[in-house]
Amino acid sequence: MKFFSSYQSNFNSFFVEIGEMGSFTGRYFRELFSRPFEFREFLKQCYQMGNKSLLLVSVTGFILGLVFTLQSRPTLMEFGAVSWMPSMISISIVREIGPVIIALICAGRIGSSIGAELGSMKVTEQIDAMEVSGTNPFKFLVVTRILAATIMLPILVIIGDFVALLGSAIIENTKGNVSFLLYFNQVFEALKFTDLLPATIKTFFFGFAIGLVGCFKGYNSEKGTAGVGKASNSAVVFTSMLLFVLDFIAVFITDIFYN
Amino acid sequence: MEKKSVIEINHIYKSFGKTDVLKDFNLDLFDGENLVLMGKSGSGKSVMIKCLVGLMDVDKGSIKVLGKDISTLKQHELDELRTDIGFLFQGSALYDSMTVRENLEFPLRRHSDNSEKKTEKLVKEALENVGLPETIDLMPAELSGGMQRRIALARALILKPKIIIYDEPTTGLDPITAKEIILLMMNIQKKYATSSLIITHDVDCARVISNRMILLLDGKDYAEGNFKDLAKSDDPKIKAFFK
To answer: How much is the pLDDT for A2?
Structure first.
């Protein structure tokens, strides 16, 4: 009985949280279009999220390209289809693996950092101090961060995808004597507008989800250092889950439109 | 001549769930005075000041600041009123991702149209007032607790507010630094002729700085008077505050 009541209470609190997040999202859109615009803070956040995640995204993308090519090569060789390597790698990275892996990396890097930063600001009364000084903390802290994440993630994904293809080209060049020119020629021949557009659009939603969940968890964190840790941790866990759900929805919609 | 109230709190009630924190609490802060509000930990002092600046809503009763009922104000009116109130938080609450300069510029950039030169001058002046001009480019994490409290005070004063609220200004500081902060508060009161509401349970601080005191007990304003009279009281509940 106790087991079921604990499950029921977790279930209830999950839906309460979803409702609160809905209202948080509504407030974001209301504040997004109202003055004053915190442009300086927005640019600062773009720099923090974009520039400071660039190395991590590049390294991840590069290794992804290397490993993916190395793992696929023997199987394609078995079927005599090794010449299909650039097409296969580019379509899988650009359509699916690149956006999802880079979004997951950014959920860890950006989502947790937003959750921890806003959580510790709440615990140390910095958010109250901002409000008491006559500044709207939601607009200054939340709107700028969500918007910056929404805009920076697609850029990071494009860079990550390119670096992944570069990693794959290096393997093809060293193992299969395929020139970089030929490799990228085949890549651009294989990629169509219908591969690029939905993949890019979904990354805006991924960025929005990372910013939204990080801000929601941090802004509503419980008091104490444990609350900050919990906010940061749950921001990553919840965002990761949400990314897969969004990815499924995006693939489903794309499938309806293009097939 | 009748004294002018800058803060009037009338019969406020506030509860969280089944716990009543404030029950029929009243307070008047007169122009130019230092009013100390003393109470035990958990007696509702911090809740009261959060209600006072509109960070929390009261369940019942009214709060007037500079003649305006805060419950009836629109958000932009409340933000404007807040520029007349300086708030020193218990833990200083400096923005830790910003330098000392940026912390002090933050309210200035939002509530004045000063030129860069004027802003710079005001920031330097505020830091000189608290005796820390050399910290201008440091991060809050590089400062001691006492220094952080002084910078927070400089930030609270930078818009030249009419009222300053101090939430436990000496808590967590060593006795020497605590005395320095009290002296600083007194100098500021003299220089800017502000009205101050000081929330504390530090008897020494209350003795030195108060013109008048209110004792908060069980969510009510239990007693009111000057330090000497209250300290001499035979009431065991009042005596407990001064032990």
So the answer is: 67
For residue range B29-87, list pLDDT tens digits in order: 999 899 999 988 778 888 898 999 988 999 999 999 999 999 888 888 898 899 999 99
Chain A contacts of B97, Cβ < 8 Å? 117
Whole-structure pTM over 0.95, yes or no?
no
| Chain B residues with CB-CB distance to A117 below 8 A | 97
Extract the tokens encoding B7.
């803060």
Which residue in the block uniquely carries the two structure tokens 């608290």?
A: B130
The predicted structure's pLDDT at residue A249? 94
What pLDDT is stored for residue B175 in this prediction? 85
- Please give the residue of chain B at the shortest CA–CA distance from A126: B93
Which of A128, A142, A139 has the alpha carbon at shortest distance from B156? A128
How confident is the model at residue A11, as a pLDDT? 79
Beta-carbon separation of B89 and A125 below 8 A: yes
Across the interface, which of B94, B96, B110 has its CB nearest the CB of A134? B110
The answer to whether residue B55 neighbours chain A at the CB level (below 8 Å) is yes
Q: Can you read off the two tokens belonging to residue A248? A: 């499924």
* Contacts with B95 from chain A: Cβ below 8 Å: 121, 126, 129-130
Q: Where in chain A are the domains?
A: 38-253
Taking an 8 Å cut-off on Cβ atoms, the answer to whether B80 and A134 are in contact is: yes
Distance CA B36, CA B52 (A): 15
Domains belonging to chain B, first-starting first, are 1-82+195-243 (3.40.50.300)
- pLDDT band for position A38 (50/70/90)? confident
